[in-house]
Amino acid sequence: MIHKDVLVIGAGPSGLSAAIEAGKAGADTLLVDLNLKAGGQLFKQIHKFFGSSAHHSGTRGYEIGSLLLKQARDAGVEIWLQSTVIGIFPGGKVGIERGLDNGEKDLVTLKAKTIIIATGASENAIRFKGWTTPGVMGAGAAQTMVNVNHVRPGENIVMIGSGNVGLIVSYQLMQAGCNVVALLEAAPKVGGYSVHAAKIRRAGVPIYTSRTIIEALAGEDGSVCGCVTAAVDDHFQPVPGTEETLKCDVITLATGMKPTMDLVKLAGCALKFHGPLGGYVPIHDERLETSVKGVFVAGDSTGVEEANTALDEGKIAGISAAEELGYISHEDADAMRSEIWSRLDSLRLGPFGERRMKEKKAMMEEYSETVKVPAAFQ
Amino acid sequence: MSEALADDMLVCRCEEVTVGDIKKAIRDGARDVVGVKRRTRAGMGLCQGRTCEKLVQQIISKELGVPASETGTSSVRPPVRPVTFGELAKGDVEDD
């Protein structure tokens, strides 16, 4: 069996920054990711990021990914790609299907003194008549197709949801040569930043608010050939008589995300429901430690937010894991964390950020009331 | 989202479970995601509920008039991703 100080699961922004901090502090750190490349969703982001210089503002997402990957290697982090954690077992043993250079897979078991779970989030589906028709897909899937695999998902796209994902992916689909027929938003106003919305409006894409999809239409070949939309009332229910049909061959859903929870559940971490964070989430304290001693979480897997908050949460988790193992003193770790927390608080301003900040604070209060002290692995 | 959902609409596409199947499971006594899963197999397929869990939560919430926070979440067992028997069989089994 392989032994490690720190195992980081997931090499997105939070996992990478966690591994960098743990590695820099001197911990023997392994970073595992099931994809071909490290960087998680960063490698799909071809736009420049906002925020402060601490969060790489002005840099394109995939460049941030490359930068972090280099920093992780420099920090001595061992990285296994195409490697999937298939389970966390009693006593904290971890089963990993390890991808080998020759393309084969090998099953290994590993015991790490601390585990950082940074498994991100997955896209929400919504139900409407015909939602399982080929051609209906997550906006993230469409983004992977154009930005990573350089394949257009189709020619004529209808985007559902006007959060930043819906707005940015619409624009990127247009850059890839697709025609975005329309963007539908059930709420009365656009969800994402107006700078992103203005960009696609200027390009002539209509954004319909208070309107949603009620049916995907299938053509002779069984795949999407159009959709029926309808205006919605104050309770998001379709208003009869307002139906309109749009022609399209792809319907992309940008309707929110939920944390990927399988490994935190297997590890036995206490969960709580926090709607604004995406549903059930593992609760954590200010050190990002879960209810299980030595198991930390970071990024979207403990509440769906942005790449920059994930970067900072990853740092905190990496510092805390290194502190747990004695590589960083408690005083130093506290000082490092408080600097990052104050930055996180300033990131979590604005209408969306504040709601999440409130949920995060409530979650940490729940932790101190219900968990108090993390328990050893069962 | 429309409340007037046809009973034949698929919810769990992996196991081909419909809105009607889930409503029936609730009439039969299911009170949370695990209860629905045990009665219908919703969430037991290839994706292990990654797509349908939230949809099942929404149906339970509406049918029983409870908030989504009371609809529970699915239990998990390893392997959490598909793995071949061949790999499992040759896997390393040494103890500590």
TrEMBL record, chain A:
It holds the Pfam family Pyr_redox_2. Keywords: Oxidoreductase. The keyword Nucleotide-binding does not apply. Signal peptide: none annotated. SUPFAM superfamilies: FAD/NAD(P)-binding domain. One of its GO terms (molecular function) is oxidoreductase activity. It comes from the Bacteria. InterPro entries: FAD/NAD-bd_sf, FAD/NAD-binding_dom, Metab_Enz_Cyan_OpOx_G3PDH. Residues 4-314 form the FAD/NAD(P)-binding domain. This is FAD-binding protein. It comes from Candidatus Weimeria bifida.
TrEMBL record, chain B:
It comes from the Bacteria. Gene3D superfamilies: BFD-like [2Fe-2S]-binding domain (1.10.10.1100). Keywords: Oxidoreductase. The keyword Zinc does not apply. GO terms for molecular function: oxidoreductase activity. Residues 68-96 are annotated as: Disordered. Residues 11-90 form the SoxA A3 domain. PANTHER family: GLYCEROL 3-PHOSPHATE OXIDASE (PTHR42720:SF1), GLYCEROL-3-PHOSPHATE DEHYDROGENASE (PTHR42720). This is (2Fe-2S)-binding protein. The lineage of its organism: Bacteria, Bacillati, Bacillota, Clostridia, Lachnospirales.
